[in-house]
Amino acid sequence: MIWVEILSRHRDITARVRIAGPEVRIGRGYDNDVIVDDPYVAARHLRVFRDEAGQLVAEDMGSVNGTFLDGGKSRLARIIVDGTKPIRIGQTYLRFRAINHEVERERVARPERGMLPFLGAAALGCVTLGIYMLKVWLTQTSEPRVSTYLTPSLTIIATVLVWAGLWALLSRIFSGRSRFLRHLLIVLVGAFALSLYNEFAQVSAFAWTWPTASTYQYVAIWSILAAMCFFHLREVGPARLWLKGAIVTTVLVTVIAAQTLQQSEAFSDSGRQNTTRLLMPPSFRAVPFRDENAFFGDIAGLKAKLDRDRNQAKPVEAGG
Question: Is this model's pTM higher than 0.90 or not?
Answer without folding.
Answer: no
